[in-house]
Amino acid sequence: MTPQIITIAREYGSGGRLIGRRAAAILGIDFYDAEIIRLAAKESGLDAEFVEEEEESTTSSLLYNLATGAGVIGHGIYSAQNLPLQDRVYIAQQQVIQKIANDGPCVIVGRAANYILRERQDVLNIFIHARKKYRVEEIAARHRISVEEAEKAVQKKDRSRAAHHRHYTDQEWADPHNYHLAIDSGAFGPDDCADIIVSVYRG
Amino acid sequence: MTPQIITIAREYGSGGRLIGRRAAAILGIDFYDAEIIRLAAKESGLDAEFVEEEEESTTSSLLYNLATGAGVIGHGIYSAQNLPLQDRVYIAQQQVIQKIANDGPCVIVGRAANYILRERQDVLNIFIHARKKYRVEEIAARHRISVEEAEKAVQKKDRSRAAHHRHYTDQEWADPHNYHLAIDSGAFGPDDCADIIVSVYRG
Questions:
Q1: To which H or E segment does residue B123 belong?
Q2: So what's the ipTM on this one?
Q3: Chain B closest-CA separation from residue A181 CA (Å)
Q4: What is the full DSSP assignment across A117-185?
Q5: Do B4 and B182 form a contact (C-beta atoms < 8 A)?
């Protein structure tokens, strides 16, 4: 394959965002992460701060969908006006991701971009994971919190990302079959991970 | 990490064995696959042909273990004389794999080698997978059988390998967390997969 786009799904604390940024810098291509949230918010007219709060939560969204008859998101059958906020946010982000991918080579971190771009043949899908101990230590150091607090944060984020992915796709988040490459960042470190991605991208 | 040993777990038809052999050739290190079966059989005094038949089947082994009071295999609590044949084969292979790993750098394909060598710090664990369609076509071409027959064979092998792994380890076979690198061979092709492994091994 000759990829143009790199998508990175990453476990919380695995350094996936940093790795993606580094790979994009080496390759000299665009990098999207929080930027997508802002772009999506802009497109949909939603308040950026609110979008950030909502975008990885799926609390009772399925029930809400059923109650409002909103149908199945991500499969093209929905009635936009009946949708709860987070589903409108997802749709806005989906459109932004498709636009970004059409604009040229880039790295996109998170947002189930691998699923959103699944029809394209030029996308390299990466999953970055690491042992829990590594990720907890990483988060504790990054946010200067205790190991106990970091452990709770990691658990919560993993759960919400997996739930988000399951809700909007027909895939399991941590299933290696959904990615061309799954890398243990705890074993290699962020720089080597970025180098592996760059080397695979270049072919 | 500075790996000495490469283990490769692979889905049937993903070309994992070929990829491992190629990586070993490029690196100039030993390659073990069917060879392990023969070595294991030799060590345990079992007939080689019989070992080949038994080694990936776990039919009613758990029940047999419970009935004979053989206890938990792979966790060090067992009574060798009461063990069913396939568990004795597993133990023999486990010993062979540990011996091989002690002897120096090598590639070991299959046999849950990642789990058997989990206490070592110098092992690079790889999982090779591919979309089912790719693997079915591969097996149909390799064995000159129909697509329908190949599909059945792939399903059966996947099931038996997953069951074997689950039986002898506390891991799920296709869980990316059990590997440092999981690669989609259908996307890259066997040669590029071998190159990725070689490049990661060399660091």
A1: strand B123-129
A2: 0.81
A3: 5
A4: TTT-SSEEEEEEE--HHHHHHHHHHHHT--HHHHHHHHHHHHHHHHHHHHHHSSS-TT-GGG-SEEEEH
A5: no
A129 Cβ neighbours under 8 A, 6+ residues apart: A10, A11, A14, A174, A182, A183, A184, A185, B176, B177
Q: Are A19 and A168 in contact (CB under 8 A)?
A: no
Report the first-to-last Cα separation within chain B, whole angstroms.
8
Closest-approach residue (CA) in chain B for A189:
B1
Give the Cα separation of A109 and A170 in Å (integer).
19
- A135 with A12: CB under 8 angstroms? yes
Q: Which two tokens stand for residue A201?
A: 């991208």
B198 CB within 8 Å of a chain A CB: no
A10 touches chain B (CB under 8 A): no
Spatial distance between the Cα atoms of A20 and A6, rounded to a whole number of angstroms: 8
Please give the structure tokens belonging to residue A170: 């027909």
Rounded CA separation A19/A8 (Å): 9
CB-based contacts of A95: which residues, under 8 Å, 6+ apart? Answer: A40, A43
**B192–A129 C-beta distance less than 8 A:** no
Averaged confidence pLDDT in chain A: 84
CA–CA dist B21, B33 (Å, integer): 9
Give mean pLDDT, residues B123-132. 97
pTM assigned to the model: 0.83
Extract long-range pairs of A150-158: CB within 8 Å, 24+ residues apart: A150/A13, A153/A12, A154/A12, A154/A13, A157/A12, A157/A13, A157/A56, A158/A11, A158/A12
Distance CA B19, CA B6 (A): 12
Beta-bridged to residue B127, according to DSSP, are B9, B182
User: In this complex, do B199 and A199 lie within 8 Å of one another by their Cβ atoms?
Assistant: yes
Instruction: Give residue-wise pLDDT tens across range A7-37.
Output: 999 999 999 999 999 999 999 999 998 677 5
Tell me how far apart the alpha carbons of residues A71 and B5 are, in angstroms, rounded to a whole number.
Answer: 50
- Pick from B47, B28, B29, B27: which is nearest to B37 by CA? B47
Enumerate residues 6+ apart whose C-beta is below 8 A from A70.
A64, A78, A79, A82, A83, A84, A87
